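Lab channel / #folding
Pinned by the channel admin:
"Please post every new chain as: sequence first, then the structure tokens as a reply. Keep commentary short and put observations after the output so the thread stays searchable."

First post following the new format, from NK:
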Amino acid sequence: MKNMLRLVIPAIAAGSMLAAFALPSSAATAKTAAPRASITVDGTTYYQLKNHDGKCLDMIGGSKTKGTAAQQWACNGNAQQYWAFIGLSDEDDLIKNYNSGLCLSIKDNDINGGGEVWQWPCSDGNAFENWSFYDTHSGDWYIVYNTAACDYPEQDSCGMHPDSNSTANGAVIYDQVVSSTAYYWEVGSAR
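Reply from TO:
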């Protein structure tokens, strides 16, 4: 959880910040309002995770079903694009989806690198649901990594990234050895 405290939310233009936070929270307004960097519900803050190409971490079709793959999609403020970080230790967090109440995990607990990132019932006892944020020291970018999902002697962790480093909507998210800025994410980013 201490890693999360180091995250710096980028500055938002004054006009867009006022517009985003002055709007009423009705469902009708939410459809036309600009996406918010974060929302707080019952004392828990949920953030958008935005990747290096400007897409948000999203659940396919807003699914609430366990085993559904995570994807990237244009940031639109829909409920499936908001994530809470549930601290397990100084280093590890569960990443819980606001819409489904499920957590990010590695499909079939794959230790070989390249496993699909999907949602699964939250369990602090499943290492494949433990995520950390590595500061890239390159602006506000972090690598979201899972140390259980990589069994390479030269690499102790793998990071989330879109399939084939795609920039397209709908690209499924995988967890592989970090090799480019496609693995960079920021939390609570402004649009």
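NK: Residues 1-33 have pLDDT under 50 and may be disordered.
TO: also worth noting, The CA atoms of residues 16 and 22 lie 10 Å apart.
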